[in-house]
Amino acid sequence: MDKDLKNKSFGESLEIATEHKQKSFCGKYLFEFIHQKNVNIIDDITPLSKLFRSQLIETGFLISKIDLLEQHDDPDGTIKFVFGLQGGTRIESVRLKDGDRNTLCISTQAGCRMGCKFCATGQLEFQRNLTAAEIVDQVYQAERLCGRIDNLVYMGMGEPLDNFDNVMRSVEILNDKHGRNIGIRHITISTCGLPEEIKQLALSPIRPRLAVSLHAPDDVIRAKIMRVGKKYHITEILESLKKYQGATGKRVTIEYCMIDGVNDQIGHAHSLTRLLRPLKVNVNLIELNPFPGCRYSASSPGQIQQFAKVLSDSGIETVIRFKRGRSIKAACGQLGATWLK
Ligand code: SAH
Ligand code: SF4
């Protein structure tokens, strides 16, 4: 049985209390102290009786914690945190500043199994899935270090839907009104597009916003730059998005990384327009961010603008995403870049 109290939902915390013959409000204290007050020591949850605290400790319960190893600040306000997890694993999270609002980009896996050739994380060896506790703790540690987080994006290291259960558990915990209470409209999951999991997400009781990394106008180009593109056809991904939109009515963001001479031609923009027309989407065009050993280069600003114009002219809301945090290797696709050999 998992003994990490930070992994437990609100309902499970109540059950732990009642199983120990305590009133259920003791479970409420457990959850509140861990997820609102950021307490990491069972004995510091002082409203609980001494007896209950020592019972929890004796039966092996604990509250896990990730450790800050490094902090890097970019002059543009971006901060990268390197965290150490149990067993020596390292991950990175990034705080971005939008005016007076703070966004945190969090990791869900150490490494990634999807093998996108333009992404530094995809070049690392996959180590393991993060637990829900390790995911939520990135938020608590970042808030302790640099203030309140307003928006959360699951766009750090790893493929969130490849760690579905822990990711959804972390969303439930962060969204819970007894805990950190981050509004569901302020949480976005970014995926390389796993159709079965997108359909599962559509049926889930808690549905965050969804961003899909498409990056190609057809299967041939996609399979060339993303290993996962060999497994799923774009039509399967779009079908799953239709189901998601049918169930949620929500607009989906399509992410498209602009790679020089690979997916950035005007003909590609027209093909993309045809693919996306049946859906309610907005498109983020991302200039490719380089990392050591990356075989691709970024499209020119002029090429990106022309591409964006084709999409906008056909009525698709399109935004060109600014590069941020490059000097500290904290931009999209650069996480883990400093660990590449
Ligand atoms: N695995 C998820 C989330 C993490 S990647 C996903 O792929 O969506 C977050 C975003 O960064 C994705 O849109 C991804 O395609 C993009 N990205 C990866 N490498 C990049 C690079 N070198 N330059 C710009 N964006 C990149
Ligand atoms: Fe994994 Fe996303 Fe990077 Fe692809 S882009 S390797 S899915 S983290």
Describe it.
With 341 residues, the protein is α/β, with parallel strands linked by helices. It folds into two domains: 5-58, DNA polymerase, domain 1; 67-339, Alpha-Beta Barrel (TIM Barrel). It is built from eleven helices and twelve strands. The protein has helices spanning 10-19, 24-35, 50-58, 120-123, 132-146, 164-175, 195-203, 219-225, 234-248, 266-276, 301-313, and strands spanning 67-73, 79-84, 90-98, 101-105, 109-110, 128-129, 151-154, 187-191, 209-213, 252-258, 281-287, 317-321. The strands form two sheets. It has a ten-stranded mixed beta sheet with strand order 1-2-3-4-7-8-9-10-11-12, with helices on one face. Strands 5-6 form a two-stranded antiparallel sheet. Strand 11, helix 11 and strand 12 (317-321) form a beta-alpha-beta unit. It is globular and about 70 Å long. The model has no long low-confidence stretch (mean pLDDT 96). S-adenosyl-L-homocysteine is lined by residues 118-119, 155, 159, 190-192, 213, 255, 257, 286, 288-289, 332-333.
User: Which topology of the largest domain does CATH recognise?
Assistant: TIM Barrel
**Integer count of domains:** 2
Judged by helices, strands and strand pairing, the structural class is alpha/beta
Radius of gyration, in angstroms, nearest whole number: 21 Å
The major beta sheet can be summarized as: 10 strands, mixed
End-to-end separation in angstroms reads 38 Å
| Number of separate strands | 12
Catalogue the unreliable spans: none
CATH homologous group name of the largest domain: Aldolase class I
